Request: fold
Amino acid sequence: MFGCGGLGCPTATYLAAAGIGKINLIDFQKPELSNLNRQIMHFEKDLGIKDKSVSLKEKLGQLNSSIEIESFSLEINDKNIFKFKESDVLVDCLDNFHTRYLLNEFSLSEKIPLVHAAVEAYYGQITTIIPVKTPCIKCLFPNMPNKEGMFPIVGPTCGILGSLEAMEVIKVLTGIGDILSGKLLIVDLKCMEFETINFKRKEDCSVCSKYF
Reply:
């Protein structure tokens, strides 16, 4: 799981509660006071002291002691990401597209399914990438979105998208149900609307066209 913040907290909590055998938690940042409205597994006592990956591991260990949880205080780059090539599913709980694009390429090169989610304010999106079968994140977002500075997130938005993300991971692992492959679920919680759109692979995609 890449990112142990607003999305990572609820996603990891439901995966741990479901008994997922092993969960790797990757995040190098420390919790800050402004995070606590949405990063619900980090507490005031954790502020500025523990990395988020360590803080989240402690809470999940108390929730389910029968599973294996490892924390990695890493800022992901194109070299250390290969530590996770034995993963069954990659879980994108990130807050930036630079690392998200790197995760997308890693998913394709190692043929590991990738569940992607992102949130902002009252809005969220989620899709699942199956290498060599579905479009990739670069097909969906060929140009890096222009995000400058901080952007607001209403706490429950993370809770809802994180729950959906955990559900997608469970479906990928068990093979039960239909996953969001080639589909983007868009959530507008301000108007309480959910919309699923289909998207296709770009034949000239700079990333996944190398693998088809």
Summary: The beta strands are 22-26, 68-72, 90-92, 114-120, 123-129, 183-188, 193-198. The first strand starts at residue 22 and ends at 26. The helical segments are 8-18, 52-63, 97-110, 137-140, 155-174.
